[in-house]
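= Protein in question =
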Amino acid sequence: MAEMNKAEIAEIFREIGVLLELKGENPFKVRAYQSGSRALESMEEDLEEVIAEQRLAEVPGIGKALTEKIEVLHETGELPFYEELKNSIPSGLIEMLEISGLGPKKIKALYGKLGISTIPELVQACRNNKVASLEGFGTKSQEKIISGIKNREAYSKRHLWWDAFAAAEPILRKLRDLPEVEEAEHAGSLRRGLETVGDLDFIVASRNPGPVMDWFTGLPDVAEVTAHGETKSSIRLKGGIQADIRVVPPPQFVFALHHFTGSKDHNVKMRQRALSRGYSLSEWGVSEEEGKETVRKSLGKGKMVPDRITAEQDLFGFFGLHQIPPELREGLDEIDAAEKGEVPRLVEVNDLRGVFHNHTTASDGHNTLEEMALAADERAWEYLGIADHSKASFQANGLNEERLNRQIGRIREFNEQKQFSVHVFAGVECDILPDGRLDLDDEVLRELDYVVASVHSSFSKTEDEMTRRIVRAIEHPSVTMIGHLTGRLLLAREGYEVNHSKIIDAAAANGVILELNAHPRRLDMDWRYWKRAADKGVLTSINPDAHEVQGFDYVRAGVTAARKGWLTRESVFNTRSLGEVRAYLACR
């Protein structure tokens, strides 16, 4: 195996800590690996250099005990102790870690006291109320476990938009390069930009589908071919996602693309509009209504109209509508808006001129301030906001007032040196405490350029309690924006309950920005609430929540979610120029 970097070794140490907890090992040993993981994440020096100079054991949180393991992982990418530890624990216990609300200590208790070593056994124990009667659990814990198991089952059938997009893009590029292919596009929920995707759909225009089918089913990443037909085939990729391809004659491509992009509700409304005008619309095309004669028959009789529909814009135009972007096709009010010419120009990735929610090695990030700034500079961004965690997020090596003040000074000095074109703003991701107070003193908050206030604890509060908690933070004069509003982790953890309407109203009243956290597992606030927020005059900032330079790429997922929420560049704070941002923050 290849050698490992700091971030990869830190993740291995984090996993070792969890596995040791599952085994019930000495808490000091568990904490040693947790501390070692955090120490590596916050190390600003080059790991190879520190190892070469034999200074690794001197790094606080690492010491002599972990030095040898780090050196072995860095050099070989393998650690026999880690592999032996994984093999010593029943695989079912490790799978239980995927259940929301079940941590290592509870799993160990279930295994030790009830002998539960698999998820099916856990399901049966819950049905028999054995978990509820176990000391330290109770009825509510059992209900949460049941809910977590159901969510895990549902999540296993879905994939993050980001992962689906990463799987689909190279296939689409290669499809378009095939000599038999005239047009190709992906469709379905991926093209509509839904936060999670069930499977991939490819629509292809070709007069010779055979070679296209053979190429598709012969892809190197295919784990299983589930269907291989003349014009439709299905495969399952090694990553687990299913992909379907449909090859249609070129004149039919636009109709098939529109139909299979969906959604179902959008298609129903479009068909109703077609019928009201004396036409029938389907994946086969547009035809004049002739009693009960099917669209496909009329296609055979040459009754398709009109020939000028060669693009989706033409299709919408034929029915008296302005173009509807794929992201908006959810069967809500997009058709009414398109009829009135009120579909806005949606925000695009190139509209962004910087981002604000980003972490460095000062807390739990994997790159230094300088490395993050260089990566932002290479993207030609005008500004970059650094918002490391505050001290309440101890698990993320959060900054106290003293460390934050030092970071502010360092950022000011960095800007004065003008090493890069990008301007760095000094911020913080400040924890919103359970009662709504902020985690840091007002004095240091006033020294910052901006403050992102986020919830990272006490998720079990009621909707009213959580709403009051966040509204109190919104009303704090130092708060610039609210981070990842519901704390959800897509396909892993449901968000805590909040009253979106009240929070949107509070943000509007106090001039506070609501973040659209672009991390593919968050995409929070949810796209379904952004139109209402924008109508109220609330701004968003599309932030990647980047913990490493590669995390900047996540803005694409955030922009996709923003487009689903009908957001224009005018409603997105970080489409503004550096001068405009400086003026805004100065007024705050």
